[in-house]
Amino acid sequence: MRSDLFTSENMVRPTTAPGMSLQNPQSIRYVVDGECYARQGAMIAFRGDLRFERKGQGVGNFLKRSVTGEGLALMSVRGRGEAWFAHDSANCFLVDIDPGDSLTVNGRNVLCFDATLRYDVRMVKGAGMAGGGLFNSVFTGEGRLGVVCEGTPIVIPVSPGAPVFVDTDAVVGWSARLNTSLHRSQSFGSMIRGGSGEAVQLRLEGDGFVIVRPSESRPGGQASG
User: Fold this and answer.
1) In this structure, how many other beta carbons lie within 10 angstroms of the beta carbon of residue 206?
2) Smallest Cα–Cα separation from 117: which of 108, 105, 129?
3) Mean pLDDT for the chain?
């Protein structure tokens, strides 16, 4: 049988070592020898002796997710084999987290990660419930994290004295050591008269970076403006 479908870039090659790698720009291949975690519903294929189980988040994280609708709905993947993960054809990226690193990521952008990483769902400082109760997942420890992004992400450096302002629906993640607060870009009167729609942004300041996606649509596809 002959077809362009069977080109070498589409074919799965033999495994070399446990862990995750990019299968292609829209999917991650994870060679499991023990355990890893992934967002529920992200598995698109697997082979080998693997078990998939819903992972509890603990009482605190469960309550935060129930209130905000955000957080991490996870499953554990145990055994020996290979699994492929993807989400709505979004672009996939691998992030290596070293000891001492701390990265905060929007829960909707997490695809899978090593069991050696620790995570906690925290409220974004300075946002509070007035900002929609912004909660993100903070990753620490040592291991690899797989994230997804609709479109090509933009990574903006943040330096002392030069804060960066981002749309809360567009932000993917940022250096956890950055300070955060809400910034209102126009007055209440301006909003009533018909302003730009960009009334509230997340302000980040300090030394680090912020990652944003080229869209401000909410998960349901509704624009924030």
Assistant:
1) 15
2) 105
3) 82
Run of H or E residues at 87 = none
Decide: pTM greater than 0.70: yes
* Whether the predicted pLDDT of 104 surpasses 60: yes
| Confidence band for 132, pLDDT divided at 50, 70 and 90 | very low
List the helix and strand counts (H, then E) for the chain.
2, 16
Query: 77, 83 in Cβ contact below 8 A?
Result: yes
CA dist., res. 138 & res. 121, Å (int): 6
Question: Is pLDDT at 114 greater than 60 in this prediction?
Answer: yes
| Among 199, 85, 63, 192, CA closest to 148 | 85
Cα–Cα distance measured from residue 120 to residue 129, given in angstroms and rounded to the nearest whole number: 18
As a whole number of angstroms, the distance between CA 38 and CA 145 comes to 10
Per-residue pLDDT at 22 exceeds 70: yes
Integer Cα distance of 189 and 191 in angstroms: 5
